[in-house]
From TrEMBL, chain A:
<dbReference type="InterPro" id="IPR023591">
    <property type="entry name" value="Ribosomal_uS2_flav_dom_sf"/>
</dbReference>
<keyword id="KW-0689">Ribosomal protein</keyword>
<dbReference type="GO" id="GO:0005743">
    <property type="term" value="C:mitochondrial inner membrane"/>
</dbReference>
<dbReference type="InterPro" id="IPR001865">
    <property type="entry name" value="Ribosomal_uS2"/>
</dbReference>
<protein>
    <recommendedName>
        <fullName>Small ribosomal subunit protein uS2m</fullName>
    </recommendedName>
</protein>
<comment type="function">
    <text>Required for mitoribosome formation and stability, and mitochondrial translation.</text>
</comment>
<keyword id="KW-0687">Ribonucleoprotein</keyword>
<dbReference type="GO" id="GO:0006412">
    <property type="term" value="P:translation"/>
</dbReference>
<dbReference type="Pfam" id="PF00318">
    <property type="entry name" value="Ribosomal_S2"/>
</dbReference>
Automatic annotation (TrEMBL), chain B:
<dbReference type="GO" id="GO:0006412">
    <property type="term" value="P:translation"/>
</dbReference>
<feature type="region of interest" description="Disordered">
    <location>
        <begin position="347"/>
        <end position="369"/>
    </location>
</feature>
<dbReference type="InterPro" id="IPR020574">
    <property type="entry name" value="Ribosomal_uS9_CS"/>
</dbReference>
<keyword id="KW-0809">Transit peptide</keyword>
<dbReference type="InterPro" id="IPR000754">
    <property type="entry name" value="Ribosomal_uS9"/>
</dbReference>
<keyword id="KW-0496">Mitochondrion</keyword>
<dbReference type="GO" id="GO:0005763">
    <property type="term" value="C:mitochondrial small ribosomal subunit"/>
</dbReference>
<protein>
    <recommendedName>
        <fullName>Small ribosomal subunit protein uS9m</fullName>
    </recommendedName>
</protein>
<keyword id="KW-0689">Ribosomal protein</keyword>
Length: 216, 369
């Protein structure tokens, strides 16, 4: 059992997430398109490649690195049987995110966030509830273009977060930010597909390893 | 907290009053956590299973005690047996001893929603309102299905059907019915949002595909129109046409049988009206329907009346005779009778006395001092 858990940590890319996407896939899904110059957040400037006709373009090389780190982390969390919560407050993609979560066997929250969900969980849900081990934000802003409350709450509860940060978002409290577009349907579908594939892959690998251990 | 308060006092008293320590008492009630706000206790699956086993065993024991067959011992038998073995004079039904199936005693929503490893069963558990949001998710999925189907039809250039569904006889679920289905509290906003989504789904032309799903949330409204049926004339052994009517006024209830080819005789409880109603006003009330229709000497009436006082009985018989006369008369005359107020039940009853007043309206005498 100990060997099952320590073996994946020895390799930098145990689950081979690099092969799931290429730079061309990101470009075709319009991940590099940011908001206009006026909406730019100060902390997003390192991730921006340039500005064309007032529209910010996100540096896809950096996005590739960040995305790979994030997918690797999700795979490890899913391998260890952690609870993953998909969060997004975009009405357009609410159904898509919930279906993705259901397909992976993980959880989703794309509705109004009640104040004490993470910080007051034992009173809201009952004693003995298990909190999520990872939060994935498909969009870090809520409907009034302010940072989602869950980012701050997860930081308070020591829960690691992965978030797709657009040029108007604040990447500060997110453990694994992924600079990229969060408004185009193509981009969000790509992210959902990638997360779904990594989680399913990690879970299959875990079942496979457990079966191999049992046979011994 | 008491220690903190003592220290503060010592710090403040820097002058000649430094020696005195003022003790401010604080009770532990201030620091006791509100146990009620921690939410209801959750029950595990294993606990509920054990309760069901114990209940079944107890049911068999009870049947043996009462000398009945354990196999055919129903819930009503259990209730009767418990009421017999543990008689209770308590007024509140819910305070009396009861033995019910654990599924009724332990409400469903209080069962623990996660497995042994801590992973919740439902994928929307962390939203807080899992049943409601999963319902919204499902309904939205149906809406997307219908849209896709519509797009396919348009792509194939097929006509899109638009049947007028009869929405007049149906209504949507009420908020309370929805709460019962979801086993969760639903706020007014959430309920209205769900109904709007359903209406959006129904408004699509190809919504017939999801008809079965929509019917789960609509209920029939019973047709409230009830045309008053005027009974036809009946004939007794002598061949005389007669008709019956019922009437009431205050606490009096009356039935009247009006015979044709009569002499205008009226009998009440076997007594002639001249003896039963000495007062002229009551007899006038009885004769009013006949006078209105101009049929004074043409009908015989036999009535029975009970309850109420003198006027109330007269009014009740009047209504009963008017109702009976409907069968002898044309529809136009029935309408005239209705407009004259002969066919309407008088709704006036004695008003109750209110506390702080001497009667229904009379207040106590106001004294200046």
């Amino acid at each position: 059992d100990d060997k099952l858990l320590t073996e994946p940590l020895r390799h930098p890319d145990f689950f081979n997430v690099k092969e799931l996407f290429t730079l061309k896939d990101l470009f075709d899904a319009r991940v590099h398109l940011g908001h206009k110059k006026g909406c730019r957040h100060r902390f997003m400037e390192p991730y921006i490649f340039g500005c064309r006709l007032d529209q910010d373009i996100i540096d896809l090389d950096q996005t590739m690195q960040h995305l790979q780190l994030a997918l690797n982390f999700t795979a490890h969390v899913a391998y260890r049987g952690g609870i993953i919560l998909f969060v997004s407050r975009k009405r357009q993609f609410c159904h898509l995110v919930e279906s993705t979560a259901r397909a992976c066997g993980e959880y989703a929250h794309t509705r109004y966030w009640q104040g004490g969900l993470l910080t007051n969980a034992h009173i809201q849900f009952g004693p003995g509830v298990r909190l999520p081990d990872l939060l994935i934000f498909l969009s870090t802003l809520n409907n009034v273009f302010e940072p989602h409350v869950a980012i701050r709450d997860a930081a308070k509860m020591n829960i690691p977060t992965i978030g797709v940060v657009d040029t108007n978002c604040n990447p500060c409290l997110i453990s694994y930010p992924i600079p990229g577009n969060d408004d185009s349907p193509a981009a969000v579908e790509l992210y959902c597909k990638l997360f779904r594939m990594t989680i399913i892959r990690a879970k299959d690998k875990r079942r496979h390893s457990e079966a191999v251990e049992e046979l011994r | 907290a008491v220690g903190r308060v003592l220290r503060l006092c010592r710090r403040w008293g820097a002058g000649p009053r430094a020696q005195t320590l003022r003790l401010i008492c604080t009770t532990t009630a201030v620091h006791r956590k509100n146990a009620g706000a921690s939410g209801p206790e959750k029950y595990t699956e294993a606990f509920i299973k054990k309760q069901i086993e114990e209940f079944n065993l107890g049911k068999r024991h009870l049947a043996n005690m009462m000398g009945e067959d354990p196999e055919t011992f129903t819930q009503e038998d259990i209730d009767r047996a418990i009421a017999y073995l543990f008689p209770s004079g308590l007024f509140d039904e819910q305070a009396r001893p009861m033995m019910k199936h654990p599924n009724e005693v332990f409400p469903e929503q209080r069962k623990i929603q996660w497995g042994e490893d801590g992973r919740p069963f439902h994928f929307l558990f962390y939203t807080g309102k899992q049943s409601y949001y999963s319902l919204m998710h499902e309904t939205y999925e149906k809406w997307l299905n219908v849209q896709k189907h519509q797009d396919q039809l348009i792509a194939q250039d097929l006509p899109v059907q638009k049947e007028k569904r009869n929405l007049a006889g149906s209504r949507w679920l009420t908020k309370i019915e929805l709460e019962e289905i979801l086993l969760e509290k639903v706020s007014d906003d959430d309920y209205s949002r769900f109904i709007k989504l359903l209406q959006k789904l129904v408004a699509l032309p190809c919504a017939d595909i999801e008809d079965k799903y929509i019917q789960k949330f609509s209920r029939e409204v019973p047709v409230q129109l009830q045309k008053v049926v005027i009974e036809p004339l009946q004939y007794d052994e002598r061949g005389v046409a007669f008709s019956t009517g019922e009437g009431k006024r205050k606490t009096a209830r009356a039935t009247a049988v009006v015979y044709d080819n009569g002499t205008g005789k009226i009998t009440v409880n076997g007594i002639d009206i001249l003896h039963y109603f000495p007062v002229l006003q009551d007899r006038e009330q009885l004769l009013f329907p006949f006078q209105f229709l101009g049929r004074i000497g043409k009908h015989d009436t036999v009535c029975t009346v009970s309850g109420g006082g003198r006027s109330a009985q007269a009014g009740a018989i009047r209504l009963a005779t008017a109702k009976a006369l409907r069968s002898f008369v044309t529809e136009k005359e029935v309408e005239f009778m209705r407009q004259a107020g002969l066919l309407t039940v008088d709704p006036r009853v004695k008003e109750r006395k209110k506390p702080g007043q001497e009667g229904p309206r009379r207040k106590f005498t106001w004294k200046k001092r």
